[in-house]
Amino acid sequence: MYPNQEVREIVEVAVAGVRETLEGDLYGIYLRGSLVLGDFNPETSDVDLLIVVGRDLGAADFERLDTMHHRIQRLPNRYANEVELAYVPLADINGFRPGKRYISLERGEGLRWKVLRHNWAVEFWGVREHGVALFGPEPRRFIEPIPLEHVVEAIRLELSAWQEWADSPEDPGWHATRGTLRFAVETMCRVLYSLDRNELCSKPVAVAWALRQLEQPWKALVQESQGWGSQPSEPGTAGRTQVFIRWVVHRARGLEGSDERPPKGP
Predict the structure, then answer these.
(1) Angstrom distance (rounded) from CA 164 to CA 242
(2) What is the pTM of this model?
(3) Closest CA to 25 of 2, 47, 58
(4) Which residues are paired to 132 by β-bridges?
(5) What is the DSSP letter of 39?
(6) What's the rounded Cα separation, in Å, for the pair 114 and 123?
(7) For the residues 82-98, what does the mean pLDDT come to?
(8) How far is CA 65 from the centre of its chain?
(9) Among candidates 35, 133, 121, which has minimal Cα distance to 84?
């Protein structure tokens, strides 16, 4: 489950910090994402957690959690700023509706209130089916079955956010590392796989499928992205990734029966 000792240590520190800070308001802590799906990349992946709480959290809770997370982020561990998580009340998980703000943490950032979008239906499905309980009951004991068609529809709805990002070249994310762009390319491969086959898979499976199914120039872009890591992003690389995202959005609309023409490749 843990690819190296540093990942294990940062998870254990985070679990201890959350338990100490929330005490009786804590319901469970769950490992999710690439660490449990088998596609964790030590160079580019983050550490994903779901924190389930017994009530809606407020400003005082935020201040205490913020202090704790700042302390963790200062640790001499390469993953100290690579943790992503959200604090979600138990009552909001089943029948999840996007649009509510929750205390959240994203890699390289401080704690903040964030609106959870459609993709969190996918995250809750992943926790139920593959998540690991680090504290609290097993996920299947409290997360009701989520129909796969609901998960696939959430993936489709989330594409609007990706389209918005692709159309915002000034966003700092485009000027980060190539690893960020690799994440985007691999996520688009998973989107195409899910919409085409009506099922979910890990990123490596989706990339292998895309390399068999996609035509040029997308096949070459996916292949090239597998070598992207911590190098600085370049305008040309970001631009090709933006066009790929737009093409996937148009492709998704095509799968819905749209006759809208896709943008040209790079």
Answers:
(1) 10
(2) 0.85
(3) 58
(4) 31
(5) -
(6) 15
(7) 95
(8) 21
(9) 35
Q: What are 103's two structure tokens? A: 């205390």
Taking CA atoms, 250 is separated from 82, 93, 156, 161, 256, in Å, by 32, 31, 11, 14, 10
Q: Residue 58 is encoded by which pair of tokens?
A: 């407020």
Whether residue 85 is predicted with pLDDT greater than 50 in this model: the reply is yes
Which residues in the chain belong to E strands, given as ranges?
26-32, 47-53, 83-89, 101-105, 112-115, 132-135
| Model pLDDT, residue 38 | 80
d(CA 187, CA 4): 24
Residue bearing tokens 């802590």: 29
**Whether residue 263 has a cis bond before it, omega within 30° of 0:** no
Q: Helices H, strands E: what count in the chain?
A: 9, 6
The DSSP secondary-structure symbol of 201 reads -
pLDDT in tens, 100-144: 999 999 998 999 999 999 999 999 999 999 999 999 999 999 999
Q: Tokens 């950032």 appear where?
A: 109
Indicate the average pLDDT of the chain.
92
d(CA 89, CA 101): 11
* 265/90 Cα distance (integer angstroms): 44
The structure tokens listed for 28 are 């469970």
> What are 64-79's pLDDT values in tens digits?
999 999 999 999 999 9
Neighbours of 70 (CB within 10 A): 11
Q: Rounded distance, CA 250 to CA 70, Å?
A: 41
Rounded distance between C-alpha atoms, residue 62 and residue 51, angstroms: 13
